[in-house]
Amino acid sequence: MAQDAAPQAAAEQPVSAGEIIVTARRREERLQDTPVAVTAVNAAMLENKAAVNIGDLTGSAPNLLITNQNSGAAAANLAIRGLTYADVEKSAEPTVGVVVDGVFIGTSTGQFFDFFDIEQIEVLRGPQGTLFGRNTIGGVINIRRSKPTGEFGGKVEVSYGKFNTLATRAVVNAPLSSDGSVGIKGFYFHNESDGWYRQAQDGSRRGFSNNENFGGALRVAPVGSGFEGILTVEKQVQKYDPVVSNLTRTGEVFCGLIPAEQCNRNNTTDLYTVFGQANVGHYSAPSATLEMNYDAGDVTLTSITGWRKSKENQTQDFDGSSVDLYYVRRLQNYEQWSQEFRAAGKIGSSLDYVVGLYYFKSDYYLAQYSRVFAFAPTVDPLVYDTNPQQVNGSTRSIAAFGDFNWAFADRWRLSFGGRFTRDKKALDNSFGGNLIGAGQDTFKKFTPKVGVDFRPNNQTMIYASWSQGFRSGGFSPRAGTAASASQSYRPEVVDSFEVGSKLELFDRKLQFNVAAFYSKYKNLQQNNTLNCPSCATGNETITSNVGSAKIRGLEFDFTARPSSQLTITGSMGLLDSKFKGFIVGGISPVTGAVVPYDYSKNDLIYNPKMTASLAADYTVPTSFGEVIANLTYRYIGRYDQQISLGPISGDLVNGPIIVNGNDPRVRTDKQGLVDASLSTNFTLAGADAKLTLFGRNLANDRGPTHGFTVGGLWSFGTAREPRTYGATLGVKF
C-alpha cells in the first residue's frame, strides 16, 4: 500500500540545526510535527530572558498562568486553559501537573521550580492524563534537567539585584570512566532576598526567603549497550516569611477589633505595606529519581522511579493585622513514591506506540495549632492550642495506559489511546486527639483520547482531537464536623475538543500555530466556607462538587527568524468561561438558616479573558564575542483568585440567593509586564563568560497575586513582585 513509507516521511521532517525536539507524547518529535498544543522553551531562551523560576513562564505560553502561593513552601498556583485548583493542602492534588525528569510532583508545594540547569521546558495545554501521571486535566509543565555529560566542565553563576537579592548557582560535570560512559554531575543553588513588603510599624523589609537546592546525578551509559541509567539525588531547604497583607473591610468581624487604618485598604498599592506579626517557615525536601532506558532495537524500555519527602514547620499571621486574632503554626509531613514502566516502539512502518503501567502512593500528616482571639502574641500556638487540628491522609493509585499513532493513509495519521486509573484515598480529621470524622473511598475511570492529523504539504499540519481528563475525588482536610470529614467529593471530568494547525513558512523562518478548544467541565471541585458553630473559628471549609462549567478559547503563537541575528516570538490566548448549576448551602442574612446560594454568575478563578506576550532577541557579533538584547512584554487580563461572596440578590429569606460575582478584593487587575535584559558573551581566563543586566516589571505594575476572604471574619492578600533589576555574571568551562 501507499502508506508504507510515505506517511512517516510526510509526518517526520528532517531535523535541522537549532530545531526544538519535544517529548510531549513520550516520543522524540519535532515541535511542529506534534499534533498537540505545546510550547517549548529551551535553555538558551531561558538565559536570554534572564528567567529565574517557573513563574517567569506566565504569559509566555497562551492561556498559562503561574503565581506563587506563599501559604506553602515553593508552592505554585497553576492554571492552563482556565483549569486550576489553588490550594496548598497535601490532600488536594494540582489540576496542572508539574513533571520533573519524568516524575509527577503530587502537591502544589515544591512546584515553584528554579530554572538553572534546565535543558528544556514543555508546556502542554489541555488534558494530558493518558501519558503524564495523575490528575493533569488542565495540562502539564514538563521539565527536563541537563544530564551528566561524561566530560569535565560546568558553569558557575552569581546574581545580585534589588531587595538584596543574591543568587549563586553552580553545576560541575566530571567523567568517571575514560570513555565518558560513566559521568557525574554535582549542583548547588542558593537564592535569598529581603522581600518587597514593608512593615508599617518600623519600615523594615518583610517577606524574606532563603532557598538552597543541592545534589548530584550519576549517569551510566556503556558504549554500544543501548542502556542508559541516571540516578539523581537532591535536597531543597527553604526558610521564608509567609507574610500577608490586610484586606479586611467594614462589616467583617475582625475590622471591629483592629486599628481603623488597617481596615478598608485597597488591593493594589496598599498590599506592599503590612502590619502583622513575624512569621517563619522551614521546609526540607529530599528526593531521588532513577531513570533507566534500554534500547532493544524494535522497542525501548523505560523505568522511572521517583521518591520525594517533605517536612514543613510554618507559622503565619493570617489576619495580617497588628492585633493577635488568628495566628497558626502548621506542622506537615508528606511522602510520595511513584513507579512507571513504559515500552515504546513501532509495529511495521505505519504504527508506533507507547504503553505502560504506573503506580503512585502518598502519605500526608498535618497538625495545625491556632491562636484565635488570643491577644497573646508571645505565646507559641504549640503551647496555646490544646485542641489542635490533626489530619492524616493517604493515596494509593494504579494505572495502565497506551498511546498509538497509525499512519493509515498518505499524509494522514490517527492517534488514539487511553488510561485506566484507580485511586484509593483515606483521610481522618481530629481535634485534640479526638476523632471528628474519617473517610475512605475508591475512584476509578477510563479516560480515552483520539485525534487525527493531516499534512497537505511539508509546511502544514492540521489536526483535531478529543481527550478526556480525570481528577480524582477525595476528602476535605479543613472539615470541622463528622459529617463533612467523612463525606467524599466526586472526581472531576473534563471533555476537551480541539482543532489546530501548525505552519512553517518562508523556508522555516516563520512558525505559526493556532488552536481552538472547547472544554466541558463536570463535577467541579470547589472550596466553600460554611457556618460551623462548633468549630473554633465559627466556620469550616469543605470541598464539594458544585455543578459544571464550559470553557472555550483560541490560542496563537509564533516564532519568526527574519535574520540570523533576530528572533521574535509571540503568543495570545483568549478564554470565555461560564459556570452552570453552581449551587451550595449558605446562611441567610435575614433568618440565619441554611439556604441555597447560586454562584453561577461568578467568574471561574484564574481565568483571564486574555493573555499575550511579545518578545524579541537580537544578537550583535563583536570583536570579543557577542551582545544579546532581549525585550519582552506580557499582558495578563484581570482574573479572580477565589470563589467568594460578592453582591447578592434573589430570595434572601428562603433562597435561592443569587451571588452576582466574586468579592472584588480577590480580583487581580490587568497586568502589563515589561522585562528586559542585555547580555554580553566574552572570554574570561580562557573560559566562556556572560554578563547580563536585567530588569523585570520595569513599568512597576503593582497589584495582587492572591486574595482570600474568610466567611465574613477577615480577608487577606499577597502582592506580586514590583520593579526589580540586577546583574548576573556567569562562567562556563
From TrEMBL:
Belongs to the TonB-dependent receptor family. Coiled coil: none annotated. Residues 264-698 form the TonB-dependent receptor-like beta-barrel domain. InterPro entries: Beta-barrel_TonB (IPR000531), Beta-barrel_TonB_sf (IPR036942), Plug_dom (IPR012910), TonB-dep_rcpt-like (IPR039426). It holds the Pfam family TonB_dep_Rec_b-barrel. Residues 31-140 form the TonB-dependent receptor plug domain. It is a multi-pass membrane protein. Its main location: membrane. PROSITE patterns: TONB_DEPENDENT_REC_3. GO terms for biological process: iron ion transport. Keywords: Cell outer membrane, Ion transport, Iron, Iron transport, Membrane, Receptor, TonB box, Transmembrane, Transmembrane beta strand, Transport. It is found in: Cell outer membrane. GO terms for cellular component: cell outer membrane. It comes from Sphingobium amiense. This is TonB-dependent receptor.
